[in-house]
Request: fold
Amino acid sequence: MLRYILARLITFVPTFVGVTLISFAFIRVLPGDPIIVMAGERGMTQERYDELVQRFGFDQPLYLQFWDYLTGVVQGDLGRSFITNRPVWDEFFTLFPATLELSICAIIFATLIGLPAGVIAAVYRGKFFDRALMSTALVGYSMPIFWWALLLIIVFSGNLGWTPVSGRMSLMYFFDDVTGFMLIDSLLSGQAGAFTSAVQHLILPTIVLGTIPLAVIARQTRSAMLEVLSEDYIRTARAKGLRPARVNGLHALRNAMIPVVTVIGLSVGTLLAGAILTETIFSWPGIGKWMVDSIFRRDYPVVQGGLLLIALMVMIVNLTVDLLYGLINPKIRKR
Amino acid sequence: MKIRHILAPGIALALFAGTAGAQTLVYCSEGSPEGFDPALYTAGTTFDASSHTVYNQLVEFVTGTTEVVPGLAESWEVSEDGTSYTFTLRPGVQFHSNDQFTPTRELNADDVIFTFERQMDAENPYHEYAGSWEYFNSMSMPDLIETIEKVDDMTVRFNLSRPEAPFIANLAMDFASIMSKEYADAMVEAGTPEALNQRPIGTGPFQFVDYQTDAVIRYAANENYWEEGLPKVENLVFAITPDASVRYQRLQAGECHVMPYPNPADVAAMQENPDIEVLEQEGLNVGYLAYNTQMEPFDNPRVRQALNMAIDKQAIIDVVFQGSGQIAKNPIPPTMWSYNEAVEDDPYDPEQARQILEEEGVTDLAMNIWAMPVQRPYNPNARRMAELIQEDFSEIGVDVDIVSYEWGEYLERSSDVDRDGAVLLGWTGDNGDPDNFLAVLLSCDAVGGANRAQWCHEPFDELVMEAKTLPTQEERAALYEEAQVVFKEQAPWATIAHSVVFMPVRPEVEGYKVHPLGGHIFDEVSLSQ
Reply:
């Protein structure tokens, strides 16, 4: 197992360097000069422009700029935002807990519903439940997040008044961040009602962000289960007179889990992409909105640093998924 | 380090919560401030969160108008040659405090000098502490201000390199918000100069309490505020809500009291809604189409006029602004002093337009129209506007290609003297002074920069430059009115529209005034029970 982990970790290094280079190049390939964007409609004199070019180091050759960035990254310094002058690292970790909290809730929601739904659909293949479920999943998968979010807000917050419209916490409550996770901090604050408010604020964004992964997980579970259910050993298990619940739940599901776990792992990338829209609509102060604002402002250090950190998170999740394969399937671990 | 830890939670809570039943006004703002030092930035969102709440300026605009009145300066005198302005400061003005800083003295001349020196003096420890001083620079302050003198503790003199009548209005702008030198010094000593931009200390009606990045900004009323009776609410909260439809839902649900920038399509429904009152005011802005007057055939004023006559502006107001705009005939908006009512707009007359083009020998004209990639109050949908103009021009036989670039690229390329065709762009006033439109956008100095028509017309330029040097508003207005006549004859732009600003508020909100300069200001606002 240790060798397996080490081998996985070694592949991390070139990926990391590659991502650093791509994140550096990506924002520079985009047209638009950050200094011109900063000046807006009013423009600036050539003299002033030259002064700022020099201050931000844009007069250096690109390879030197990249070298400075890379050496900084290796030492854990991602630079400072052009706009706020705060370290990118600080900005990221101020906002990341909000994104992480929402993503975790969304993936739990998607798995808790998607997995059993996929199993049931496979077991009742071709029946009404299967068809209804798969059509619903298709709709969920193709639903524009923006529209879906507004629809839920209008119905549940506007018309029914069951959930708050947006934000992470009612404005009535005011306490200091300890972990950045509102569910935990609200409990730590000891303020009555704060936790309930945090949960209420999470409901709609969780549903919206979890919808696409839910559909994907349900479909993937169904097809993986169907494949496994047609295997000989399942027939053998049935022939031995095992209860269907045991056959489906233990023999079939465990073997169907590998592609499903892969999909759940890959969904993390989708979640981060979906978070951009979900966060904007629900005024959720996470990294999605922060990245989008920074791209529009051409805030190079934030965009390249943010991309690198997000990529790093996805890589860590994928590594964890790889390790999980080992747990689920001992054959992989021994290879 | 997190921005959140501004005050020890106990103090913050006590400051913020006040007494039971304290009035808290919630404003669903449209975005996050870039920081809290307004001189570093140019975005209105940042000004709302800083200069309009936490700070004051030497002179200030009366909310809802562009009239300038004394602020932190009680009075001022201008020398006869118009190059020296002496301000007498208001006595007894106190700065806010936080857990890291308690002021030991009241406002004095050192604070005023520090405010400007950090923007103009490269040696000042705050000159490069964050971002850059774009407004200060774009208002040509480094060339204009020669020195700032401390006459005595409560008197400051600005010596200018030339007479500049708009100077007083410039000092009412956000970049001129007065900072505490004592606080700045204390933060340098503590090794945290960036606190000036993250934990602001000012003299304004509201004291900064806390900022949760991208989520909520909290302010408490400044109990020692120098203007008696203000502010009227105990607490002010900015609930950051970037999406306009969601702001509308929050307003309806009572989660906030005031929201800016509604979707034009929602305004009609809001006006019908008994839980919402929609305030409105003409915006101090203009949207225009600027020809490149240095290139054929647009170097001919008759050709430009003919093209202007082909544009159906009413259709643009209906389709692009969905009614929330009015036709523009002058380059300055009608709410601005010196607006020339007597100027007549070019009639919408495609037939005559075609005839003029023929007379001028312009046939088979093909041109580019540039459509901005961003939404602005003066142009909510440039692409659509360009398509309408394309249709209008095709009726007079002019073939139009619509081009667009990424915003930074657009701004850069459209300033180029050799740029082709005509550019859609606009302007929102900074200080209510006509100079801020006419000189900034149309003077010879601005060619290759903000003058997108690349138009240098001496008779116009002389009028505008002379108006800068005259002492009274009356004398200046006469020249600006004349300049508008010259502008119309020469037609460097097709002036298209001035937007109308809508501000939906809850019915319990009292005393909110829509500010023509675009800011959202809450010191005079209260909530009825």
Summary: Residues 415 and 449 of chain B are 5 Å apart (CA to CA). The longest helix of chain B spans residues 473-490. The two ends of chain B are 40 Å apart (CA to CA). Chain B touches chain A through 63 residues (CB under 8 Å).
